[in-house]
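Good morning,

Attaching, inline, the backbone tokens for the sequence recovery test we're adding to the shared suite. The designed sequence is right after.
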């Protein structure tokens, strides 16, 4: 079974997807981690992450896999290095290349084969798993998402964090391929005023209904 959740950064989908996966005993697959891994590898090798051809060439020369829930590059667990400010900043332009997207989609689908999974990202309900058994779209206001991000990053400036979120939303929504959008028939949850447990409850309740 595939449960897919899309939504903008900070909408709570990662944490809730993990909670739902834990509750159901499903495998959790974060698709953004693969874009982050290609970005990290390019940065590690001194490649300009905006140089599409070099980033692609590098991506084709490495192998991404998942071990115990952690993304590995050529077999090495790199999960802990996927969330630096530099990777945050460049994962979006890297993910805008349709050729990189196709590589990530193939990797994700092959990992998911035969498994019960909860997956999340920007296009898991529209492109990666359009036939997922259950599809969700999480949203929250940019201001709320900025406050959530502030809680994770000590000493950060609210206006700067908010501007960053608005800019990432724009890039995610304007991508030529794999843009963030609400899939037809997806179950939409506005997480702005909900706790993570309440969102998790809503997802679990929706799984009881055939229309999710
Ligand atoms: O969810 P995240 O912040 O870890 O995602 C990292 C980047 O990858 C982000 O810029 C959006 C992009 N992404 C995407 O384009 N498609 C996905 N399915 C998942 C993430």
């Amino acid at each position: 079974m595939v449960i897919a959740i899309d939504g903008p950064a900070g909408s709570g989908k990662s944490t809730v997807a993990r909670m739902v996966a834990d509750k159901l005993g499903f495998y959790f697959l974060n698709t953004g981690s693969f874009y982050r891994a290609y970005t990290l590898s390019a940065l590690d090798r001194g490649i300009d992450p905006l140089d599409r051809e070099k980033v692609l060439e590098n991506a084709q020369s490495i192998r991404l896999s998942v071990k115990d829930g952690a993304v590995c590059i050529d077999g090495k667990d790199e999960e802990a290095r996927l969330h630096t400010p530099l990777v945050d900043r460049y994962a979006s332009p890297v993910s805008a290349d349709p050729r990189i997207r196709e590589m990530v989609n193939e990797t994700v689908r092959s990992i998911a084969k035969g498994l019960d999974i909860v997956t999340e990202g920007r296009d898991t309900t529209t492109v990666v798993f359009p036939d997922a058994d259950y599809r969700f779209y999480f949203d929250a206001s940019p201001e709320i998402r900025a406050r959530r991000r502030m809680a994770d990053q000590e000493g950060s400036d609210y206006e700067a964090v908010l501007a960053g979120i608005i800019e990432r939303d724009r890039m995610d929504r304007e991508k030529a391929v794999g843009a963030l959008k609400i899939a037809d028939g997806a179950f939409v949850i506005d997480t702005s005023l909900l706790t993570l447990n309440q969102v998790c409850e809503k997802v679990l309740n929706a799984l009881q209904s055939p229309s999710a």
